[in-house]
Specification:
Helices cover 25% and strands 23% of the residues. It is α/β, with parallel strands linked by helices. The structure holds pyridoxal-5'-phosphate.
Length: 345
Amino acid sequence: MQRNFEKIKNYAPGCKIIAVIKADAYGHGLIRVLPALTHADALAVATLGEARELRAAAWNGRILVLEGCYQANDLADVHALSLDIVIHQKEQLLAIKELAGPPRIPVWLKIDSGMHRLGFPIADTESILGELSRCQSVLPPIRLMTHLASADERNNAHTQAQIDAFSAVTEPLAYERTVANSAAIMAWPQSHCQWVRAGIMLYGISPFVDSTGPMDGLEPVMSLETQLIAIQQLKKGDTVGYGASYVCPQDMLVGVGAIGYGDGYPWYAQTGTPVLLKGKLTHVLGRVSMDMISIDLTGHDAAKIGDTLVLWGKGLPVETVAKSAGTIPYGLICGITRRVEFVVE
Ligand SMILES: *Cc1c(COP(=O)(O)O)cnc(C)c1O
């Protein structure tokens, strides 16, 4: 993870780095990743609850709460925990104005430059900045942010339009700004500004659909592994697993791996989803169960109970698995459940 962090610095020299560790650090463990992030200029989480966990773990650095908060009494907590918040809609603006005086809270004003999810209309930027700067409960300097909808598509016209729209309004203003997620850090240098927000690339995963972490010079951090716990010699016409959805086209060896959707391996992974058995490629057969998957042992005659299966990670990029299973790498890594034992190497 530290080496991926160094890569971010190479992509965005001179920029301050916000390490995005929402959703339990994309499934890697919110607290577990902290030792690798001591050089981050800030951490970002989605919710106040996540920020509380970081402070409880004695993280003293800057923490940005990306969704801000919604209850007036949460602002007291925000101040008590020394958090930075995003303000992206009117109710939040009203709440901080109602505080009417210290405590003073660092604020990142989010502008909607075209993603149409969070943020104030771009035309309102200056008037809201005016309101915030007059607000006694806001600790200067205010910072500006926006989020890109399609940065993961190189040369996407919508992304360029978002960058242009945001720049036109905010460049003349003397505020620090942040636009770039991982994809923009790597593919849209014109979006870098003073702060970049790195998520997926920190974990060694490519933000681009046509690439993988290793192809982009990143090192995957997570490897999801299990063992072979049974081997079945099946006959032509035998069926495998729930729903009897896989029918053996010939006599064949079928293995059972101790992992299923109860661990976060996706139920919707179909026959053909790749799996590594002792470093050699094979694939899922039939339906994924809660605790087990069946895999094809054709050509793996030496396979034996206890052999290691890699579901993704070392030697099998999660991007490849995601594509095959019809999801995105983010969805797979965030889905790992509590039952899976973490081993930190
Ligand atoms: C999650 C998130 C990021 C990080 O995105 P990646 O694609 O994982 O780099 C950046 N900014 C905001 C506002 C986010 O919600």
